[in-house]
Structure prediction request, 101 residues.
Amino acid sequence: MAHRYSKTLLHQLRNDVDVAALIRDVLALPTKTDHGVFRFQCPCCQGFDCATNPKTNLARCFHCLRNFNPIDLVMVVNRCAFVHAVDFLRQTLRNPSPPSN
Prediction:
């Protein structure tokens, strides 16, 4: 069965799911704050030379040079296909985690 998602939904998942909160609260990747910069462990190369850009809602590993949007991150961390990543994020949007303090 073919899965089709609206451009609006995909835009919302890529842009409205806070990538830093996804990394920290949902995917539970190892994180740290270094000189005021949020860093996380790359799910591909395991390096800690990753950061997020709140303006673009993207994450980047400066070691393996991978860029991630929220859908990409879910695909890599959960080792799943695009369709499963979208469904995972849709479920996450329906049941958002409480804000971290």
